[in-house]
Structure formats: structure tokens, C-alpha cells
């Protein structure tokens, strides 16, 4: 039995965002809502049912206002589709609440509770289908069933660097006992200069890193979105399979990937700048590279270092490439924003710089590219074809990058602001990244 066939028989690998499971959950959820909405008696139809619906609508509007206008944990707000499914879950809970008082504990209340749970499960499933964040149960359960290894910090006695004018692959000969797969390790990347407090990050080391002599591989610093966490790239992004696939096609060679935390919390936006909020740029442009240099044996120089990220992380990747070009020579901006934002321009400038527009413009990508040229920097902008919010922003920033002499591409992928786009943005551009960073010719 092949591995692919074995995977299809493992329930952990059955798809959750398409196919029988997704449609079964959808059908069960709508059936549960219908069961909750239908009951005998004039009092239910004339009074209680309308009250349950009105309460659900009111609570949904309150949640939307609370998240988007009061709390503002992320700048772009809740997508309309997400709000609709939140409202659907709230409706199920509201209907159940009104039904419970009129039923005995068994089996009436148990069935109502089950129906409410199915309505919430359906809404959660539909939101997951929008973002494709948990394509399988294995990804969903990864924090509990997966384990990362220990980072290999040994220093090899002999290393192999690409000679001038050649790629590393041109002088690399893999040993016979080279491992088939690379390794993923959870790490703590300190911020001694920035004093930036972060969550654990991750490091992917390709098979070639375990060889002797050790090839000095390029480095990709990879950033999650906000809300989000570094483990999103490991679990939802399928980073190891993606990188191992590239390594298998290139005799064990692949970039070293450092998944760093740019925010410190899923609900905090530090704007990826040095400001009143935090010294996020110092952390990502100094502390992280310094830790990598002290801990691992890698290629050096801006040409061998790249930065990439999704959504907030995409915006951040462009900021770092423009404000720290001596560190990062290449970037991949996936579904990023026109400017770093806390929800509005005025709020961003006020909270980060005390209202000082000049301080914001000194590091804002659009203003930086209006002042400077970057002929030695290369990048790729990626966005979903159906992403109505971020596609216009990406197209505008891409045009500004062209005017600033950045060597850039704009790629439109099928999808919207979801993991089908995010995964493809990295996987489809590994060849470009490897050539750009001197790994292959």
C-alpha cells in the first residue's frame, strides 16, 4: 500500500473543507436549525421564535461592533462571511435557549443541546472552509498530536560555500547516507537589543544541513499573520512537507526556514515598526538574524537572506526589505496591506508615534519607496484573485515598487484571503527563492 493510499484510509487525513465530511456537517447543521425553529404551539410561533431571532440578530450585531469598533484585535475587521456564520451559530444557541425551558431533561433538553452543538459545528466548519486553515483533522489536532524535535546546534568542522559566480548546488555532492527528510524544531529567539517579548518560533533544517561538509544554506525568515502564530506555518502551512518536497527534488538542498513571531500575541499588532508600541523592527532585523548567526551555520550577506509573510506578515516582510535592506535582499509579500495599520491611519500614527506623521512616513513602505530606489532588492507580491480587500492594496503597492526600481512580480492566485493562497505563495516560489539566494543556478 502506498503512502498516499494509506493516508486516504486514515481518518485524520480525510478532508474537512471539501467532500463528504464538509457537506454532511453542513446538512446536519441546517437540519438542526430547522428542528430548533419548529415547535408546536401558538406561543412558540408568535412570541418565542421571533424573540429568539431578534435576540440572535442583536447579539450578532453587538459582536460585530465589539470586535471591529471597540476591541479591534486586527485591523481589517471581521469579513462579512464570518459575521454571517457567527450569526448562524448565535441563532442556534438562541433558539436552544428558548426551547430548553419548555422541555424535560431527557430526552428533550439533550436533543436541543445536541442540535445547538451541530449548528455551532456547522458555522465553525463553514468559517474553516473560507480560510482552509484546518484542511484535515491532523492539522486541527496538530498542537496535541504532533511534536517538534530539538534544534541541531552543533558546529560542523567543515563547511561548503558557493564559490564566486556559481550556485551552491554546482559544488554540492550529497553523501550516500543523507536523510530523506529535514527537521522542525521549536525555538526561543531572544530579543536582547529590542527587549521584544515573543512566543516560540520554529526552525526548519533541510536534509543537507546534516551532511559533512555542511553546505552554507540561505535563510528564509517566515512570518505569520495577525491574528495568528508561528505554528500556523508549521500546521496549516504544511511547511515541512513543502520544504522536504523541494529538498527531495534538489539533492537535499533547501533554504533554512526560521519562523519568527512578529507580534508576541495573536491579539496584539506591533505594526512591525520601532515605535512607542515596541521595537518590532529591531527584533526582526537585528535580534533574529544575530541569533541565527550565533546558533546555526548559514550563508551570510543580504543576497542569501529573504523574508516572507502572510497578511500582516506580508506587510511586515515588505517593511523589513525596505527599512533593513542590508539584512534582507528578497521578500515575498503574501496578501499584505497598503500600509501598516491598527485599523485606521489616524489611530496608527497616534498610538505608534504620538501623532507624528513624519515619524510614520519615515518607515511606511509607500513613503519609503517614493523617496528611494531599490535596484538590488527583489520581491514577489501574491494575492488571491477573489480577495476584494487585499488585492487592490497589493496592486497599488506593487505599482509603487516598480516605480522604486524593485525587481518585482505580481502573482494572482485562485482563492481569496485563505491558506490555499498562502501555501501556494511559498511553494510555487521556492524555485525563484532558491535562485535568488544562490542555492541553485
TrEMBL record:
A molecular function annotated in GO for this UniProt entry is: acyltransferase activity, transferring groups other than amino-acyl groups
Q: What is this protein called?
A: Esterase
Q: Which organism is it from?
A: Kitasatospora indigofera
Q: Which InterPro entries does this chain map to?
A: AB_hydrolase_fold (IPR029058), Esterase-like (IPR000801), Mycobacterial_A85_antigen (IPR050583)
What domain of life does the UniProt record list for this protein's source? Bacteria
Q: Does the keyword Cell division apply?
A: no
What Pfam families would the database entry show? Esterase
* Residue ranges of the TM segments: 20-39, 46-67, 82-98, 110-127
Keyword annotations of the record: Membrane, Transmembrane, Transmembrane helix
Amino acid at each position: 500500500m502506498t503512502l498516499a493510499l494509506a493516508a486516504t484510509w486514515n481518518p485524520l487525513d480525510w478532508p474537512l473543507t471539501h467532500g463528504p465530511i464538509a457537506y454532511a456537517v453542513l446538512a446536519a447543521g441546517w437540519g438542526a436549525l430547522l428542528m430548533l425553529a419548529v415547535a408546536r404551539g401558538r406561543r412558540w410561533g408568535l412570541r418565542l421564535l421571533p424573540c429568539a431571532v431578534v435576540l440572535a440578530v442583536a447579539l450578532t450585531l453587538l459582536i460585530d461592533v465589539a470586535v471591529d469598533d471597540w476591541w479591534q484585535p486586527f485591523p481589517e475587521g471581521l469579513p462579512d462571511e464570518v459575521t454571517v456564520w457567527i450569526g448562524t451559530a448565535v441563532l442556534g444557541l438562541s433558539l436552544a435557549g428558548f426551547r430548553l425551558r419548555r422541555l424535560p431533561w431527557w430526552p428533550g433538553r439533550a436533543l436541543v443541546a445536541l442540535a445547538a452543538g451541530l449548528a455551532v459545528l456547522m458555522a465553525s466548519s463553514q468559517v474553516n472552509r473560507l480560510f482552509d486553515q484546518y484542511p484535515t483533522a491532523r492539522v486541527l489536532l496538530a498542537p496535541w498530536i504532533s511534536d517538534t524535535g530539538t534544534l541541531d546546534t552543533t558546529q560542523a568542522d567543515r563547511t561548503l560555500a558557493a564559490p564566486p559566480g556559481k550556485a551552491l548546488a554546482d559544488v554540492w555532492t550529497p553523501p550516500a547516507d543523507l536523510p530523506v527528510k529535514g527537521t522542525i524544531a521549536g525555538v526561543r529567539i531572544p530579543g536582547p537589543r529590542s527587549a521584544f517579548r515573543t512566543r516560540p518560533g520554529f526552525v526548519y533544517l533541510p536534509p543537507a544541513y546534516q551532511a559533512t561538509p555542511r553546505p552554507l544554506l540561505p535563510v528564509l525568515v517566515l512570518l505569520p499573520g495577525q491574528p495568528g502564530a508561528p505554528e500556523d506555518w508549521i500546521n496549516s502551512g504544511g511547511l515541512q512537507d513543502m520544504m522536504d518536497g523541494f529538498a527531495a527534488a534538489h539533492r537535499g538542498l533547501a533554504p533554512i526556514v526560521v519562523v519568527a513571531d512578529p507580534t508576541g500575541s495573536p491579539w496584539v499588532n506591533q505594526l512591525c515598526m520601532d515605535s512607542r508600541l515596541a521595537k518590532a523592527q529591531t527584533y526582526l532585523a537585528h535580534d533574529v538574524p544575530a541569533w541565527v548567526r550565533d546558533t546555526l551555520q548559514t550563508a551570510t550577506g543580504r543576497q542569501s537572506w529573504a523574508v516572507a509573510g502572510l497578511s500582516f506578515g506580508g506587510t511586515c516582510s515588505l517593511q523589513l526589505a525596505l527599512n533593513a535592506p542590508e539584512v534582507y535582499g528578497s521578500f515575498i509579500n503574501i496578501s499584505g496591506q497598503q500600509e501598516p495599520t491598527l485599523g485606521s491611519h489616524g489611530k496608527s500614527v497616534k498610538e505608534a508615534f504620538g501623532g507624528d506623521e513624519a515619524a510614520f512616513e519615515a518607515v511606511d513602505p509607500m513613503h519609503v519607496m517614493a523617496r528611494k530606489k531599490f535596484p538590488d532588492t527583489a520581491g514577489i507580491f501574491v494575492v488571491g484573485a477573489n480577495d476584494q480587500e487585499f488585492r487592490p492594496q497589493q496592486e497599488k503597492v506593487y505599482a509603487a515598487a516598480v516605480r522604486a526600481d524593485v525587481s518585482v512580480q505580481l502573482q494572482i492566485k485562485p482563492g481569496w484571503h485563505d491558506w490555499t493562497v498562502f501555501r501556494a505563495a511559498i511553494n510555487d516560489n521556492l524555485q525563484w527563492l532558491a535562485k535568488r539566494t544562490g542555492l541553485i543556478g
